[in-house]
Write a structure and sequence with these properties.
The complex is a heterodimer of chains A (463) and B (262). Chain A is of the alpha+beta class and 463 residues long. Chain A has 15 helices and 18 strands. In chain B, β8 and β9 form a beta hairpin. Classes of the chains: A alpha+beta (463), B alpha/beta (262).
Chain lengths: 463, 262
């Protein structure tokens, strides 16, 4: 596909759409804008634009479609699969200046925001009002728009679901510059195909979100976390289906191993509240009173003790919870500080989590390479990292690809999916295509073509 | 070694409203928890016990509901617990509190070491620990942020003097108060909860003490008069800068230079 190379006249026109200080070219373009958080590819855009309004985005898209210029939308650039990398050059459209919270409607429990609002800021805003935005991905510096575009999940998915479950409406600029409204402040909606749900998780390939209506819930008053030590990760993960089976509904079920915990505490310069075991489960329960929570966590604790747990440690205050969750929150950063790495975020049926992790342990031995994992044991979404360590590039690439192939193959056999929450971008494209097969990919391509017949919006991603 | 740890039940949140008229904290409907600093005190005691052997006793003054934090002490690893509970102890300032706790300690028995958190999160005075030691006439070291070593007779610690560290060796019996830097407190154990569920918590009242003069306790024994409690005005000056990394670095550098920090 051949796109138009931007000329000085094009840049001048873009400067007339935005004010010139929000148009960056040449040396003004930071290296950061050529890549995302993890993907190995790096491509510079020809121009970086920072629109602030829907109208500006619409004018940019009109211009881009008239001149056949590729446009890649980008939030904070915290993606892990290369979706925000301007693979074909052209325009990189950054949404972080579109960071207004228009409204928090406490009567309808809805928030109306621009897509560039940072998740952390949004959490703080709604928390002050006694409300909660349940999606809780670990990367709090991501934008809400980015979260919607990857259908981000997070720690609370076991109980509350994922980003998709909280997006009620959106305003979208289509690739030709037309502006459409999808959904709204309605809790139910059976009005034709849900285009809104097509946009969610589309990684900026179908349209550019310029406004979001998000559903909020009342903030539960109390929470308790349980840190549960085990002799092995197998023992820990084997307990998960039993907790689910006991009809207890934790908000989060995470698993973690000593190596990863140590990396994180070293990175943070902190001490973890327990170091007695090689593996841990971490459960969180939300509730509205101390006594209600106590009853639930005692039942869960009994299930764990009946299933080989050494003990069940109770984090019943904010300080205690912070001492665990702060560490949990830096796992990825800590691993990245330790070694270059490749990630796999497959999701498998949750009763297959243990089997999958055991499988990756086998791969570690088979390929003589370090593999570390942690993740959401409660929803089957694993985060598995292959560490390059001291390997030379050539061997690293060979081993990395072989291990990734085996993992995705196994995930497919277990009826899992390629990505639980990080998305496809370019890094996971071959695995997605292999996993879903041609019929589904062709359907997706036709959808892409009906939204974006000129293929100018984030070309080369997902499909 | 025999160690006693003084603990206190405090409101779960520090966003407690103050009744403007009476100056009393409005605690209705607010759950309570163990004073966070006391967790470090218990952890210090448990680590010393693990090294030296002995027993750890937890002690609190408060209403019978304070049983909750004594049980939590058990769940962390304490061996025995006492509550000093009597209406006549109510309304105590730091002196009367120190006196009551010291009277309790005398009644309970002899200890090598007393440990307190450096302060509570509801009173924030940091006075009660040292007051207990003064009343018991034993040496004390406040703001301990590291235990360097322990023998049968002595303890060597580092104390945080804000801009310097002082190394202190103290002989038993002694009292120390600890900061949050001293360790990472362990979490309460559910197994211990099951094991200690039936453990007795001993309740002591004024009638159990050697000194039964009511004027030494509670409001009557408190020379401090609280005139008014109010939240302090926030006096943090804030400036927000926006710009590129380079511009911001320049601004920060100039400000630091202006303030003579560089």
């Amino acid at each position: 596909m051949h796109y138009k190379k931007l000329t000085q006249a094009d840049i001048d026109h873009l400067k007339s759409i935005l004010s010139s200080e929000r148009v960056y070219v040449g040396d003004q373009i930071l290296e950061d804008y050529a890549h995302d958080e993890l993907a190995e590819i790096k491509v510079f855009p020809d121009v970086v634009l920072e629109p602030e309004t829907t109208e500006e985005v619409a004018n940019i898209m009109k211009f881009a479609s008239e001149h056949h210029i590729p446009v890649t939308p980008r939030g904070s650039g915290t993606g892990l699969c290369g979706a925000a990398v301007p693979k074909e050059g052209g325009i990189l459209l950054i949404t972080t200046r579109m960071n207004k919270v228009f409204e928090i409607d406490e009567e309808n429990l809805m928030a109306v925001v621009q897509p560039g609002v940072i998740l952390l800021n949004f959490i703080e805003t709604v928390t002050k009002l006694g409300l909660m935005y349940p999606p809780d991905p670990g990367e709090k510096s991501a934008t809400l728009g980015g979260n919607v575009m990857t259908n981000a999940g997070g720690m609370r998915a076991v109980q509350y679901g994922v980003t998709r479950d909280y997006v009620e409406g959106m305003e979208v600029v289509l690739p030709d510059g037309e502006v459409i409204e999808l959904g709204g402040k309605v809790v139910k909606n059976s009005s034709g195909y849900s285009l809104k749900d097509l946009i969610i998780g589309s990684e900026g390939t179908l349209g550019i979100i310029t406004k979001l209506t998000l559903r909020l819930v009342p903030m539960p008053k109390k929470q308790v976390s349980l840190l549960i030590p085990y002799a092995s990760l197998d023992d820990a993960i084997d307990t998960v289906p039993k907790i689910i089976n006991a009809k207890l509904v934790p908000t989060a079920i995470e698993f973690m191993e000593r190596d990863v915990i140590n990396a994180a505490t070293e990175y943070l310069g902190k001490v973890f509240p327990d170091s007695s075991a090689p593996a841990y489960l971490l459960l969180t329960f939300y509730g509205n009173s101390k006594s209600e929570l106590e009853e639930v966590y005692e039942q869960a604790a009994q299930v764990c003790l009946q299933n080989k747990a050494f003990d069940v440690l109770i984090a019943n205050t904010k300080e205690r919870q912070d001492s665990i969750w702060e560490t949990r929150g830096t796992f990825l950063e800590a691993l990245k500080a330790m070694s270059h790495l490749e990630e796999c975020d497959v999701v498998v049926p949750r009763n297959k989590v243990a089997e999958f992790v055991k499988f990756t342990d086998g791969l570690e031995e088979k390929y003589d390479i370090r593999i570390r994992s942690f993740g959401h044991a409660g929803d089957g979404n694993l985060h598995i990292y292959i560490l390059k360590d001291e390997l030379v590039e050539e061997i690293w690439q060979t081993k990395r690809l072989a291990v990734m192939d085996e993992m995705y193959q196994r995930a497919k056999e277990l009826k899992g999916q390629v990505s639980g929450e990080h998305g496809i971008g370019t890094a996971k494209k071959p695995y997605l295509h292999d996993s879903l097969g041609l019929i589904q990919i062709e359907l997706m391509r036709k959808i892409k073509a009906s939204f974006d017949p000129l293929n100018i919006l984030n070309p080369g991603k997902v499909v | 070694m025999d160690i006693l740890v003084c603990i206190k039940q405090v409101p779960e949140t520090n966003e407690v409203e103050v009744d403007e008229k009476t100056g009393v904290l409005k605690r209705d409907g607010i759950d309570s928890k163990m004073n966070p600093y006391d967790l470090y005190a218990i952890e210090t005691a448990l680590q010393l016990k693990e090294e030296q052997g002995g027993r750890v006793t937890v002690l609190t003054m408060g209403p019978p509901q304070a049983e909750e934090i004594i049980r939590e002490g058990f769940m962390m690893g304490a061996d025995a617990g006492y509550i000093l509970s009597d209406r006549r102890f109510a309304g105590a300032d730091t002196l009367a509190t120190g006196y009551t706790l010291a009277s309790g300690v005398k009644k309970i028995g002899e200890f090598d070491l007393l440990i307190c958190g450096m302060q509570t999160t509801d009173g924030d005075t940091a006075q009660v620990g040292p007051a207990i030691a003064e009343i018991l006439q034993i040496p004390h070291v406040a703001y301990v942020n590291k235990i360097e070593g322990v023998t049968e007779t002595n303890l060597t610690v580092q104390k945080d003097m804000a801009d310097s560290i002082e190394r202190v060796e103290v002989s038993f019996p002694a009292l120390i108060t600890v900061t949050k830097e001293v360790n990472q407190p362990r979490l309460p154990s559910f197994k211990r909860k099951l094991e200690t569920r039936d453990w007795e918590i001993k309740m002591l009242t004024l009638d159990d003490f050697a000194d039964r003069k009511e004027e030494h306790y509670g409001l009557k024994g408190s020379p401090t008069q609280v005139e008014r409690i109010f939240p302090p005005e926030s006096n943090v000056e804030k400036t927000t800068w926006e710009g590129s990394g380079e511009e911001l670095a320049g601004l920060i550098y100039n400000k630091l230079k202006e303030m003579k920090f560089v």
